[in-house]
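Quick bug: Beta-xylosidase output formatted oddly.
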Amino acid sequence: MKRKLLFAYLLSCFTFSVFSQQEKTIIQADLSQKIGKMTPIWAWFGYDEPNYTYMKDGKKLLSELSALSPVPVNVRVHSLLVTGDGTAALKWGSTNAYTEDANGNPVYDWTIVDKIFDTFLERGMKPIAQIGFMPEALSSHPNPYRHHWKPGDNYNDIYTGWAYPPKDYHKWAELVYQWVKHSVAKYGQKEVETWYWELWNEPNIGYWKGTTEEYIKLYDYTADAVKRALPSAKIGGPEVTGPSWDKSATFLKTFLDHVTQGKNFATGKIGSPIDFITYHAKGAPKIVNGHVQMNMGTQLRDLDKGFEIVASYPSLNKLPVIIGESDPEGCAACGMATNPENAYRNGTMYSSYTAASFAKKYDLMDKYNVNLIGAVSWSFEFENQPWFYGFRDLATNGVDKPVLNVFRMFGMMSGSRVKVSGNQAYTTKMVVDSSVRKASADINALVSTDKKTAAVMLWNYHDDDLKANDAPVELTIKAIPSKKVKVSEYRIDAEHSNSYEVWKKMGSPQQPTAEQIATLEKAGQLALFTPSTEQKVSNGTLTLNFNLPRQAVSFIKLTWE
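Here's what came back:
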């Protein structure tokens, strides 16, 4: 009997040991196995409402974005040519850059456009000069022109007179020419040569009320005008969304066919100037059994198909590629009150999704050997709106949300990406095929190394926003060229770098006091998880053990002499 009890005890110990080993997440990185540059594709941001740029909280957030990045941040905004008085509103913006006098003669006014670009340049940022949308005086269908959309309204109501082709392509071309010439005169040729000029936004859906051919015609006239004004300027497009959709893929390929071998509408020659290629990639969250379920696979399929199409053109496949909008879903201005599937945006799910998805963008870039230089996060701030309303933004009323701290982490990564392996990691192909839907989470890392530094971004991500036990993680970093390192760990979770949880503990005030705002601002900054320590390295290897909560992101920075 005693022997049977002893055997049962030993068996239970063995079973527990095996179970524990199976449950532990093992992640290994070798700093000597470099797989590519740590290109700062994350340092690109955009938003619908250009007039927020120079408002109080807009300026504050732009300053923070500039400060967190070691390279100039590129910023893309809509409506730079829309007619209006510059009043900011959701899904709306205007500059009044072009009007006409009583005789139909052009009147150019660059005051508001310059105010927007000045705000960027004062912070060392670079504008992605989006050429659009159609001024009222040039629109072939101007009425109605100004919309007054609000969350909960029909999204298609925004596509008014600004979305139509011009009634005169030559006047349109002259507008573009004058804008580029003005920019060179104001900011200097050397500066403007660093900008990316692009035509329109999502012309395969409601943003363009013309045909594919009419967009191509507009592109030809636009590109010709840009190059006449500044031959060294960079012009590109077409900013289609959803390349994994058949119609979108057809639009993108038709455009690329034209710029390589079609007859130019403006010059009559073969082909059109193109210096970079742009398209969009979006996910698709929904509510399932009362909780938010993300769909990273949908976004990655857009990326994958777009890269595949670009790579299929020998004369174009080395051009820079910019994902003009790369997000978990589509409507930034649709809050969680009207769109409950967007409830992920305030907390750490947005953070972990961002960390995991950017790592997979690098993987897809490597797969197709394309020149990805930027992936625009279409997320900014919404001035004078309710606190934590669930917009897809980086800050609310001047208080940083958890997702912004992922970009602060990215800002500390440089040099080369290195090979990573892990026993709980989803491969990029798995996510492309079926998203992150298994019982286990995607627990993985993106690792970079530079002179005397290494950086590890770790996430515990799952598409389903459900509670789960913390994951025990064993992280091993090999080929460290030093006998000791300084280790600093930062964390985004329920207790760290998380203004939203602090706000909820305050009672979710919509009119917080000055003292509460100061507390929230501090809580919104990237926080150390534990004090930095100095640790010994054995044979070039360092092993760290810690627990990582579901939807948390950990960032470990190593430095040495």
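Actually, after a second look the formatting is fine. The radius of gyration is 25 Å. Closing.
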